[in-house]
Protein: Helix-turn-helix domain-containing protein
Amino acid sequence: MAMLENVSVEDLRQILAEVDDADATKRLIAAINKETEDLTQAEAAALYGFSSSWASKWFNRLEWFVGEPFEEVVYDKPRERRPSELSDDEHEQFVEVLHESPEVVGYNAPAWSVPLAHH
Structure:
């Protein structure tokens, strides 16, 4: 796979010194290793437990460094969560029930499981 064209290893190392996120750190180290060890994207990704499709997306993102603040590139944007199906009161009641044995609330089971809690 081609070398990174718009960002140097030195740029990546400088950014690495400034990041404070484990995922961003692993991504940057994977990119640095790709360049310094002449690895393919897939090989560099595999070293850190990432997929080859992840590698393609990530290394393409690195090319955006030119003219962009590094924070916009190395950190993931927070994802919106879907709304809870329980109201705050229902959630509080659910948590209280989970602190009891399932037998206390009428189930014939010694411990809670995910399917039982969903029931």
